[in-house]
Amino acid sequence: MSIDPRAQQRATRAAFFIPGFVIATWAPIVPFAKLRAGLDDAQLGLVLLCLGLGSLVAMPLAGALAARQGCRRVMLASTALMLVLLPMLALAADAWLLAGVLLLLGAAMGAMDCTMNIQAVVVEREAARPMMSGFHAFYSVGSLAGAVLVTALLGAGVPVLAATLAVSALVLLLGGASARAWRGDRAPGGAPVFALPRGVVLGIGLVCFVSFLAEGAMLDWSAVFLHEARQVELERAGWGFVAFNLAMTGTRLVGDRVVAAAGRVRTVLAGGLVAAAGLALAVLSPGLVSALAGFVLLGVGCANIVPVMFTLAGEQTRMPEHLAIPAVTTMGYAGVLAGPALIGFVAQGASLAVALLLVAAVLAMAAVAGSRIGRRTR
């Protein structure tokens, strides 16, 4: 069945929007889940680790399934699982149940993330023009929309369960409208479908891991930080993630033009340093306004690092593209899902501020490493 290229492009944007929309729903309700289950920082970090474990297991399996069954079937199954799990986040009052829900949600998110990037690479190549920053922008658009919607609903007194059901309904409508244009082609018989990253691909994956770790820190810990360190009400603590996501979304929407004007090396180096400085400002400044300004700088700085890295992964010659992209995707999204759990352990042993400052330091190092990779692959 022939599908209009523009329809495929719109459907790919929707595929990126959906997981961003779903995972952002989790950010404003983390403090509610923490209180409901009676968790301290270390216990919350351990529970959050289940998101990463589910993702790490699902990503290579999803890549293999997408190669054999096509992206469409894997993305449909992943979306359906997300729809079922979202309301359960609002109902889980036991640490073990919450961990199980997050494990399955991580698996659904990981499968969707891997297959949507495989589709994006193919659609971008067929369009013969840069589109990766735009696709990733719609993940940010989804995250922004989800965070704003749920935070606003909670602030208006809507119960957490009703807010998650509203998100599920919207995802059902969007997925149903887009699924026909998701790609169903498969890899040739006998072709390898997954490989461990090596050479420059490993370096690209590590830079993506750090960038996504910072995004995961905002997703899982920004509301907790604002509530506990800045005494912001629980119902309004999600606005920190909104500020971060708004900045990232706006920057990614113009990302292709930024990269064309400044070049890949400068984009990655400047972006990483700005992100590190922004996170440090958010942690060290005493006021709420300056903390939000720091989250904005973090979003601006991180915005185009990952799209540039995915483009480099497609251009490098150390590994075939169809193996490099899933490998980089797995490493990158492991950061957003598994990294925040490590932050929880550091926060329990020292403080949440110390943990976030360590993330800022690693961001600065990733900026230098990413710029060097960009020079080698030009």
TrEMBL record:
Q: Which UniProt keywords apply?
A: Membrane, Transmembrane, Transmembrane helix
Indicate the secretion signal residues. none
One Pfam family matching this protein = MFS_1
What positions does the domain Major facilitator superfamily (MFS) profile occupy? 8-378
Localization in the cell: Membrane
| Transmembrane intervals | 12-33, 45-67, 74-93, 99-123, 135-154, 160-182, 194-217, 237-255, 267-285, 291-312, 324-346, 352-370
Domain of life, source organism: Bacteria
CDD domains recorded: MFS_MosC_like
Chief place where the protein resides: membrane
Ribosomal protein listed as a keyword: no
Q: How does it sit in the membrane?
A: Multi-pass membrane protein
- Stored SUPFAM superfamilies: MFS general substrate transporter (SSF103473)
Entry annotated with the keyword Transport: no
Gene3D superfamilies linked to this entry: MFS general substrate transporter like domains
* Name this protein carries in UniProt: MFS transporter
Q: Which organism does this record belong to?
A: Luteimonas composti
Q: What is the lineage of its organism?
A: Bacteria, Pseudomonadati, Pseudomonadota, Gammaproteobacteria, Lysobacterales
